[in-house]
Amino acid sequence: MKPLLSKTTKPFLIYVLIILIISIPVYYWAVDTIWKSELDEHNITIAEKTAYEFNHLKLSDEELTKSITLWNKIQPGTNIEKIQTNALKRDLIFTVERQKNYLSEPETERYRCLKKVVYIHDQPYLFTVETNIEESQETIVVIAITTIFFFIMIVLGLLFLNRRLSNTIWKPFRNTLGKLKTFNLNHQSKIEFDKTDTTEFEELNQSLSKLIEHNVSVYKTQKEFTENASHELQTPLAIIKNKLDILLQTENLTEKQYQIAEEINKALTRSSRINKNLLLLAKIDNSQFDNSETIYFDILLRQNFEVLEEHFQQKNISVTSYILPEVKVNGNSSLTEILISNLLLNAIRHTQKGGSISIKLTNSSFEVANSGTEKLNTDLLFKRFSKSSKDNNGSGLGLAIIKEICNFQHWNIEYKFENNFHFFSVNF
């Protein structure tokens, strides 16, 4: 994950770099074009000025011929020759490349050329002038280096501004984010956000304050409902169960009446268990538990193991265990005890008589494995009221409760079937 400013700065830098790269050939074309235009004007000026000077020397035809010959010898970049009338109808401007053969290391240079008809003593002469074009490549190299220098300055400046802006402009946002991270709905404390002169951040703080206030109100209502439901439902269920127990102890019951009362008792017991489990799920969903306790998982596991020892013996289940001592985890002790109990009871319930159960606890995971014949349906395994086996004695909420407890305590539960064994692994 990257900060917001970094995400906006990177595309900007890439855009600037692309524009600067494109600008280098544009610079080259612009500078070269300007130089050629200036040289063309310079060459035309030279031709016209030369013709003007010859006309004002008042030379004879013989002296003019000698002067032109001398001019051509001492001016290697120009040439003047007499032509027929209308031999050249318009000026010619072009570029040629020539090598400097007189140098120890010959090099090629470009020349801007002009062929123009001038009139000296009212006679047409072809004036040819060649002017060296200064190496624009060298200028472009300088421009490119300068461009790169300023690009580096832009990058460094943006990085500096990015850090400064992150520490100043985004400070109210970071303060708000920090308070949200420490907010705990169980404490029901109202968050007081710092005042800021940034409109967007102030609107964010006001919206969050209203949202938190509403959530705290809803949380209180749900908590009161679950507490009232727990008290109001369990009391009549307990009374009915007590009356049924008294009825079952009556000697005047017929066999049929006894069977009916026994079935009612089983259904009532199951209803009471489902009610408790649903209330437990509601409390977990409403975050009504503190998950910041330090728990000795191995101690809770041994305590549950001892309580369920009788169940292992009744079904003649062989148990193998590997429990690492002093395994500490963060969570809620009550929920963790329910998780351990549900996993062990689930393994016992779904293990045939004479089967086997394996229990393993390490610093990073808790695993319960029981013998079985076929893989369970993983799509329905942790859903509420779904049946992963043919056993109808359960409430259909055991594995759903285990899943919710793991989610609440930021653990992960996994299921797999290997070598005729069901494996349930809780990773801390």
TrEMBL record:
Keyword Mitochondrion: no
Keywords recorded for this protein, A-Z: Kinase, Membrane, Phosphoprotein, Transferase, Transmembrane, Transmembrane helix
Limits of the Histidine kinase domain: 228-428
Catalyzed reaction equations: ATP + protein L-histidine = ADP + protein N-phospho-L-histidine
Pfam families according to UniProt: HATPase_c, HisKA
Transmembrane segments: 12-30, 140-161
GO MF annotations, alphabetized: phosphorelay sensor kinase activity
Gene3D superfamilies, per database record: 1.10.287.130, Histidine kinase-like ATPase, C-terminal domain
SMART domains found in the cross-reference section: HATPase_c, HisKA
A GO cellular component annotation in the UniProt record: plasma membrane
Known EC number: 2.7.13.3
InterPro entries noted in UniProt: HATPase_C_sf (IPR036890), HATPase_dom (IPR003594), His_kinase_dom (IPR005467), HisK_dim/P_dom (IPR003661), HisK_dim/P_sf (IPR036097), TCS_sensor_his_kinase (IPR050428)
PANTHER family (UniProt xref): SENSOR HISTIDINE KINASE TRCS (PTHR45436:SF5), SENSOR HISTIDINE KINASE YKOH (PTHR45436)
Protein name listed in UniProt: histidine kinase
Source organism: Chryseobacterium glaciei
